[in-house]
Amino acid sequence: MMIEIPIDDAARDGASHTFRAADQTMHAASWCAARQGYVYFDGTRVGPTLTHYLARQPGLNGRVR
Prior knowledge:
Blueprint: E1 2-6, E2 17-21, E3 26-32, E4 37-39, E5 50-56
Antiparallel strand pairs: 1-5, 2-3, 2-5, 3-4
């Protein structure tokens, strides 16, 4: 099960995450330390303000209840 988590340092791990923006749109992006911002796979900086990211609910270990 996936849950929405407010953006924190865990979202800045360089891995691709699915984010929700303030305007409710969804974006697949990752943190770019060199650009100090979230970017799409092609390096373009994400324009909307990102507020949350999707993560697996802690404690499920990939199992669906």
